[in-house]
Amino acid sequence: MDWxxxxxxxxxxxxxxxxxxxxxxxxxxxxRMADRLAARYPGMMTLTSMYMYSQKAVKHMRPSPNxxxxxxxxxxxxxxxxxxxxxxxxxxxxxxxxxxxxMSKNLYLWNYTMGGAYFFHPLPxxxxxxxxIRTFHKNGTRFLFEEGGPKYAxxxxxxxxxxxxFAWNPYQPLEPLLDRFYRxxxxxxxxxxxxxxxxxxxxxxxxxxxxxxxxMWGVIDSPxxxxxFFE
Length: 231
Description:
Mean pLDDT: 90
Radius of gyration: 20 Å
Helix content: 40-55%
Number of strands: 4
Strand order of the largest sheet: 1-2-3-4
Oligomer: single chain
């Protein structure tokens, strides 16, 4: 769940210490469960979240072939592509992404495109959607879930469009997609909506990334997004 309350009993602690990660005891349990299920349900996959306290990759253990580890970007900052490692949380995430991607052929990535504190407050991450999906793909991600949707984000329709396009082809350029969407969706309002998006993203990139990371939680309180701009 969304917490850091991992088990600290001596058996779990021994596994976690050996693996140098709290994912150790989780993966030990899930592997055994998946092995038992395999006999009864051939071909069925077991998904488990490597999330919050269990994000760090294990050192020795490996996921069973029918286990799907799910890594989450919930702690990351989205002002710049994750691959830039501009804040410590992103650097840690990239290390874990690279490690899990090498040890599993069934890596699942749970990414975020909206703010969690208040859905309709801007999260200026349009320009990182494509680069981040490319990063996931290059590091062995096989399954992708982008949390957002038409009711739960600023620029929700644009983000859904870009996610769909980049999931189909992560290596295509962004600008033709933006031009096509703005013309097709906003019509005569396209220049004004495009200007708003560009100024919003420029403002977010001017922030002090180390002091004020652009995370899915807390963006609404960020001093980088000035009240005067929205007025």
